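ingest -> validate -> predict -> emit
validate: passed (alphabet ok, no gaps, 325 aa)
predict: started
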Amino acid sequence: MKKVLFLLPFVLLGCKSSTSLVPIAALDTAHKPLEIKYIVKEKEVAETLKYLASDELEGRDTGSKGMEKAADYLEQILIKNNVKPYFSSYRDTLSNFKGTAYNIVGYLEGTDPVLKNEFVLISGHYDHIGLDKKGVNGDFINNGANDDASGTTAVAEMAKYFSKSKSNKRSVLFVFFTGEEKGLLGSKHLSKKLALKNFNLYTQFNIEMIGVPMKRDYLAYVSGFDKSNMASKINEYTGKNTIGFLPKEAEFKLFYRSDNFPFYEAFKKPCQSVSTFDFENFEFYHHVSDDFSAMNIPHMTLFIQELLPAITSMTNSTTQEIRMN
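emit:
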């Protein structure tokens, strides 16, 4: 997540009360939640996250050898699960970065002859901030487990799910962005590129910092809560209070700080980020202690599992039910 660090000292002093959090309206019961038989495996969640946040990758700085290793690893996940490259290869080279860096972009064609022309984009950023020159207690590697190896892991798990279930009537683009920490470079590049190709985007679901749970009566929040009906539709699709409203998200305008925003600018469609980082539950933002050992794997596994009915419904609804307000 980009440009939030300077806010944390102030936020942590002022947001300990949960009474300022307003739950969303009662669930719409128009849809009966889908029964998903596929099981997200905790072991596989841990395996992917542990590698992406390992010291070997040296913090996955954009353009670094560590980023390259992470890209190789993510490519192999897509290949193994028969997710095709959307372009001539999985690597979408950035046009707005001086070095060599690339998004990893995979594609599953929809099963419906008409709906397959529309796309649901599922994304997370796999870059982080690399090495810390000063270090903390001899540790110089910003491993970026929560930010955003956790979101990247969730996207990888969704790619596995859709490749096995073949349950997407709409086409799905799985995107691992780089350059987020440099100013949303990967998403700026790809959104512009796709817009020029008249890409038919229905919605973007970006996953950002889901490594630790919140202590609230809902599992997560979306950025730009009031900009679309995405939160209420997700809750309708899951049959639970999965997504709630976090006032601090609105106060700090997180909608504009993650990889959903360039796509919203380019397409004016519902493009939002989901997160469980609420400014109270994780003290190691952009810190060398943001590592694998600080992550809650059972929480991540449960959260990804709970999202599957919602993401499946996004790909299968006969009309574009998620709309801008």
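The radius of gyration is 18 Å.
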